[in-house]
Design brief:
single chain; 236 residues; alpha/beta; two-stranded antiparallel sheet; 19% strand; CMP_dCMP_dom; zinc; APOBEC/CMP_deaminase_Zn-bd; RNA binding
């Protein structure tokens, strides 16, 4: 049953929520917007409470801004325990990946899960290596799916009254294509996804270029999900 209300005026996160149009332009996987947005959750130790807020690029990338803000807090020290979840409109660049790894190495009690809407300059070898280094450091990186978009809409967006269930439905194919490329990055495979943009009519084109190494290495269920291979059928 859909609520007829928007976020409660008593919601402590209300002033930290972004507007629906911001969510759409930042997190639509078809949009190649230069600026990045970060929606994040922090759960301290064993506390059931979750702190939520958001951030955007300034002179620094959002990841660096988050780290600087968090470590400047008086109560934040190297032995603190917390779990952090990021919802990023772009995956971290190689420099931000390095900053994240340094932050985590100095705070071993911190765990980080990252969901991304898009992959930032994913053909750049330094960016690819940066993401692999994060995964090898224990960071979980996944492409945002419908469930993450709905979660962000409910918890980070100042949606209008009666619009809780009317979150943007982006085509699953784009999410699957980014997930396929993320697997290529983690498995040290060549890029398989090419993205181009026609600015005059605002169209984004995705093109796959798969080699034998992709078919041989990428888990079959990932290829099946994209429709690139067909399930085998045994006749009796």
């Amino acid at each position: 049953m859909t609520s007829e209300k928007g976020p409660s005026t008593g919601d402590p996160t209300l002033r930290r929520r972004i507007e629906p149009w911001e969510f759409d332009i930042f997190y639509d996987p078809r949009e190649l917007r230069k600026e990045a947005c970060l929606l994040y959750e922090i759960k301290w130790g064993m506390s059931p409470k979750i702190w939520r807020s958001s951030g955007k690029n300034t002179t620094n990338h959002v990841e660096v801004n988050f780290i600087e803000k968090l470590t400047s807090e008086r109560r934040f020290h190297s032995s603190i325990s917390c779990s952090i979840t990021w919802f990023l409109s772009w995956s971290p660049c190689w420099e931000c990946s390095q900053a994240i790894r340094e932050f985590l190495s100095q705070h071993p009690g911190v765990t980080l899960v990252i969901y991304v809407a898009r992959l930032f300059w994913h053909t750049d070898q330094q960016n690819r290596q940066g993401l692999r280094d994060l995964v090898n450091s224990g960071v979980t990186i996944q492409i945002m799916r419908a469930s993450e978009y709905y979660h962000c809409w409910r918890n980070f967006v100042n949606y209008p009254p009666g619009e809780e269930a009317h979150w943007p439905r982006y085509p699953p194919l784009w999410m699957m294509l980014y997930a396929l490329e993320l697997h290529c990055i983690i498995l040290s495979l060549p890029p398989c996804l090419k993205i181009s943009r026609r600015w005059q009519n605002h169209l984004t084109f995705f093109r796959l270029h798969l080699q034998n190494c992709h078919y041989q290495t990428i888990p079959p269920h990932i290829l099946l999900a994209t429709g690139l291979i067909q399930p085998s059928v045994t006749w009796r």
